[in-house]
Amino acid sequence: MFKALLITQEDKKSSASIAELQEDQLPEGDVLVEVHYSTLNYKDGLAITGKSPVVRSFPMVPGIDLVGKVLQSDSTRFSVGDFVVLNGFGVGETHWGGLAEKARLKSDWLISLPKGINAKQSMAIGTAGYTAMLSVIALEKQGITPDSGEILVTGANGGVGSFAVRLLNRLGYQVVASTGRMSESDYLKSLGASDIIDRKTLSEPGKPLQKERWAGVIDCVGSHTLANACATTKYGGVVTCCGLAQGMDFPASVAPFILRGVKLIGIDSVMRPLADRIEAWQRLSELLQPEDFDSISEEIGLESVVETAHKLLDGKVRGRVLVNIQSQ
Question: What is the pLDDT of residues 292-301, one digit of tens each?
């Protein structure tokens, strides 16, 4: 028997609670993992609260991230005792995920825990830090350097935003953080933001083209915020898009793209090829320092996940939520 957070559905209404499960109830996969840590991401919050149809089949164990020790393996890539990391691939949506003491997974979804970080630190990073790193790499590959000018990070108090601010700062960029919680300005400045702006300056409908300011943008918000970010990006600038906290819509015009040559790049972290994953995690292990993990993350146990999920969607959580699966 092992403990798991299980989402069930009855009369088209879902609910989440701690359940005792048998190992033979786990879905198919060639690697069995003893989960040590998982995380609570925005997508997990939507699944647990039922506020969005994230879960595709029931019952479901949420948790799009996990790190743990291999207990059984039919894969040539991993041996018993290896520590592995998983992000995405529909885990927690179509395949049971990381908010459980055990998980059975496909080896193609896993990478080895990178050298230089431990299991706990890897989940303090999680999909949020991994997505932030993918976004930073996209800016770099498009030629955006610290000398190019200011970089805007929207939704900066969230997990992706927090890591984006820290990573950009470590690389020498001048970072401007947009947030709806100006009371958290000191936190964002401690991560390396040189300036803080209120999200209201970006979240309302705006003109198709506005005064040029940003050399690059990492947007975690979508909707009008993304549209305004594009409209205020400098000629030849680059905007990466990885979130939808404000909405899935994109009420913009083609003007920034055809008149200023702005590039809009989508950042998918779920189905990312193995080589991209390894590159991103290697960069994370090189750039992040021990003090970064405590400043950006808070730790909870499995029993606190449901309550914290509601707080997350209410905008009452900053940074990352690390879930210690083995804590009692």
Answer: 887 788 899 9
Strand-strand pairing, 2-10 and 83-87: unpaired
**Same domain? 66 vs 187:** no
Distance CA 229, CA 13 (A): 37
Q: Kindly state whether residues 194 and 227 are assigned to the same domain.
A: yes
What tokens does 48 get?
């647990």
Q: How many domains would you assign to the chain? A: 2
Single pTM value for the model: 0.91
Three-class SS of 8-47: EEECCEEEEEEEEECHHHCCCCCEEEEEEEEECCHHHHHH
What are residue 134's phi and psi, to 5 degrees? -60, -40
pLDDT of residue 149: 98
Q: What is the CATH number of the domain that holds 158?
A: 3.40.50.720
**102 belongs to a structural domain:** yes
Residues 111 and 147 reside in one and the same domain: no
Mark whether 62 and 193 lie in a shared domain.
no
Measured between alpha carbons, how far is 196 from 130 in angstroms, rounded to an integer? 23
Residue 111 contacts residue 274 (beta carbons within 8 Å): yes
What is the dihedral angle through the alpha carbons of 116, 121, 127, 133, rounded to the nearest 10 degrees?
-40
Contact 182, 209 (CB under 8 A): no
pLDDT tens-digit series, residues 144-169: 999 999 999 999 998 899 999 999 99
Contacts for 142 with CB less than 8 Å, ≥ 6 apart: 216, 238, 263, 265
Residue 196 near residue 220, CB atoms below 8 Å: no
Backbone angles phi, psi at 71, to 5 degrees: -95, -40
